[in-house]
Design brief:
Order of helices and strands: EHEHEHEHEHEHHE
Bound molecules: nicotinamide-adenine-dinucleotide
Largest sheet: 7 strands, parallel
CATH topology: Rossmann fold
Number of helices: 7
Helix content: 40-55%
Distance between the termini: 54 Å
Strand order of the largest sheet: 3-2-1-4-5-6-7
Number of domains: 1
């Protein structure tokens, strides 16, 4: 990963933060971006001189332009883009407001679209884009209508981009995490969930860590995946593999 310039969105913490840490440990130049400036600056400082922080609201087209131009000027043209910024909400569709629905689509899907376009413009010598969808973008989940629609959309967009950018040497893949221990799952929307029962429903019977997702992202960013584009890589402890028939309790 030396000589590789990586832009990670939503990298002040969570999965994006772990990704920035892993790439930095491999010698990459990393641009942490987020809207949480204080946490982003802190994280960049902790990770050392090859890690920089820039404010980038993924829903703002001008921010994408500013950060990719800034990277060019600094002699660090983006080679790998990880679109990790996102948020979740839980509500039945009938209780989801138009504003909430549009908010989810804007952040999770439009943000990814703008990132893909910015990457396509900046990656003149090829590159890799890794978009973070979700297990909930693979399995429809009651209560996650707006979130699920945005994350199914991320997978569709990624596959179209993979097809359209393959001849320019730009690979586009999606990572679909299951339940990962970050701020997102600690939100009040999920406070009523029976987490223990949920964990028992995961074949591996545990939640994942941000670093386990980061390792999948690293694979899709580097030469080890040089013939891989347009895939969804599930990092979900086996949940999407299928269902088990319940047995009678004795
Ligand atoms: N944690 C999970 O269980 C899980 C599961 C599946 C998918 N995901 C996806 O992984 C991605 C990362 O989530 P996480 O778990 O690390 O959550 P997180 O809340 O820890 O991190 C999300 C980051 O995005 C940033 N952000 C929010 N709005 C932004 C904007 N407009 N522009 C730029 N940054 C913005 C936040 O400040 C935060 O740092 C999300 O796309 C999420 O949907 C997470």
């Amino acid at each position: 990963m030396r000589e590789v310039n990586v832009l990670v969105t939503g990298a002040s913490g969570g999965i994006g933060g772990a990704t920035a840490e892993l790439f930095a440990s491999k010698g990459a130049t990393v641009y942490i971006t987020d809207i949480d400036d204080a946490a982003g600056e802190r994280r960049a400082h902790e990770l050392g001189p090859t890690v920089h922080y820039r404010r980038l609201d993924v829903t703002a087209e001008s921010d994408w332009q500013a950060v990719t131009s800034d990277m060019d000027r600094a002699g660090h043209p983006v080679r790998v883009l990880v679109n990790s910024a996102g948020a979740a909400m839980k509500a039945p569709l009938t209780q989801t407001t138009l504003q909430q629905f549009r908010g989810m689509i804007d952040l999770n899907l439009v943000g990814t679209f703008l990132g893909l376009r910015a990457a396509a413009a900046a990656m003149v010598n090829g590159g890799a884009v890794i978009n973070i969808s979700s297990l909930r973008g693979v399995l429809a989940t009651a209560g996650l209508g707006a979130y699920g629609a945005s994350k199914f959309g991320v997978r569709a967009l990624s596959k179209v981009a993979a097809l359209e950018l393959a001849d320019r040497g730009i690979r586009v893949n999606t990572v679909c995490p299951g339940s990962i221990d970050t701020e997102i799952t600690a939100s009040s929307d999920f406070a009523a969930d029976d987490v223990e029962a949920y964990v028992q429903s995961i074949p591996m019977k545990r939640r994942g860590s941000p670093m386990e997702v980061a390792k999948a992202i690293l694979f899709l960013a580097g030469d080890d995946s040089s013939y891989v584009t347009g895939i969804d890589l599930l990092v979900d402890g086996g949940t999407a593999a299928g269902v088990r028939t319940p047995e009678k309790q004795t």
